Amino acid sequence: MQFEVHYQPIVDLNGELAVGVEALVRWRHPVRGLLAPGDFIELAETLGLMPGLGLWVLREACAQAVVWQQDNPGFKVNVNLSATQLSSPELTDEVGAVLADTGLPPNSLVLELTESMALTDLTESARVLSSLKTLGVRIALDDFGTGFSSLSHLGALPVDVVKIDKSFVAAMRETTATGSVAEAVLHIARTFNLAPVAEGVEDEMQATLLRELACAEAQGYHFARPMPAAELTGLLTRQS
Ligand code: G
Ligand code: G
Ligand code: MN
Ligand code: NA
User: Fold this and answer.
1) Residue (of 65, 81, 69) closest to 131 by Cα position
2) How many domains does the chain have?
3) Domain containing 159 — which CATH number?
4) Cα 45–51–56 angle (5° rounding)?
5) In what residue span(s) does the EAL domain sit (predicted)?
6) Distance between CA atoms of 166 and 6, rounded to whole angstroms?
7) pLDDT in tens, 67-107
8) β-strand partners of 228
9) How many CB atoms lie within 10 A of CB 178?
10) pTM of the full structure
11) Are 189 and 160 in contact (CB under 8 A)?
């Protein structure tokens, strides 16, 4: 198996403890080394490999989360869905089977889809997401703030979490959070009762500004990079 799942912590901004992870697939290429998804996901989609690879990542990540939950009750795992997974009529049954097989509590699983995927066919997305939600899982909109030309979709989709795109976090270079685009995006999230997770937090200033804006959770190199499961186990052991 040349694929691996790496995990990046999602931290509680107040305690700075990992409360969950995002699962990120890697391809350990025999010649080219460790490849990030940007280098192969599109090709895998084109070749029709994504539904299978995505399902493998989901199963791997859920099984791993069950292990981490033994010492970290309520620990969450975020798994990305591809466009072809989202359009597969089997998706809900497959996710249900993985939850049943691994024993992961459904509300510990957060399925991430990008805003642009969700907006391709709003009616169909609403139907698929509602079907997934009957399992008890939660839904996150990834790259939030980059995809919408209108806000009308936010009321139409059964979404629980929004991941504030790292471009807005990167732009937080001022000494005050007020007036930043991140502030506006967080305000939109709150208006629609969506739990925000800030992405791409790279320094303490950004973390402080986000804390001031009452953003509860964040992810980024400032806290930790994506890492193999064994390394994350070590990190969790040190924090508990
Ligand atoms: O891992 P990186 O750190 O380079 O991730 C790049 C992008 O690849 C992320 O935006 C993420 O959404 C996507 N990605 C990572 N893992 C998966 C996966 O298992 N399935 C899908 N569909 N996308 C993934
Ligand atoms: O699913 P998504 O595209 O949001 O996946 C997160 C991507 O962002 C991954 O490629 C991950 O490696 C990357 N990433 C995580 N933390 C940081 C960070 O602090 N800065 C930057 N530039 N990228 C990050
Ligand atoms: Mn993601
Ligand atoms: Na993102």
Assistant:
1) 81
2) 1
3) 3.20.20.450
4) 120
5) 1-240
6) 19
7) 999 999 999 999 999 999 999 999 999 999 999 999 999 99
8) 6
9) 9
10) 0.96
11) no
Write out pLDDT tens, residues 153-172. 888 899 999 999 999 999 98
- CA 202 – CA 220 distance, rounded (Å): 6
CA angle 119/124/130 to nearest 5° reads 100
Find the ligand nearest to 45 CA.
1
- For the Cβ of 41 lying below 6 angstroms from any atom of ligand 1, the answer is yes
**pLDDT tens string 219-231:** 999 999 999 999 9
Ligand 2 center from residue 199 Cα (angstroms): 7
Residue 239 in domain: no
What is the span of the domain harbouring residue 144? 3-234
User: Which ligand 1 atom sits closest to the C-alpha of 53?
Assistant: 19
CA distance 105 to 38: 30
